[in-house]
Specification:
GO molecular function, one term: DNA-binding transcription factor activity
Number of strands: 3
Largest sheet: 3 strands, antiparallel
Strand content: 35-45%
Shape: elongated
Pfam family, one: DUF702
InterPro entries: SHI, SHI_C
Number of helices: 0
Low-confidence stretches: none
Radius of gyration: 16 Å
Helix content: under 10%
């Protein structure tokens, strides 16, 4: 099987569709769904709101270049 090398970072236009999701708490939540193509592969995903930026848990870190191991 041929192994694909994926770029470390990708910049691309994408359309994000707002969708309503049913939560386990019985309430509706909003998320964004998208599909993009990278290196000949299709990636699909749903982005869920984690709350306002000010509500991010202390100690939470965002890494611009995570480990590729």
């Amino acid at each position: 099987m041929d192994e694909t090398t994926f770029p470390e970072e990708v910049s691309s236009d994408a359309v994000f569709l707002c969708v309503r999701m049913s939560g386990t708490d019985g309430e509706s939540h909003f998320a964004y769904q998208t599909t993009v193509g990278i290196a000949g592969h299709v990636f699909k995903g749903i982005l869920y709101s984690q709350g306002p930026e000010s509500m991010i848990m202390p100690g939470t870190q965002f890494h611009e270049n995570p480990s590729r191991s």
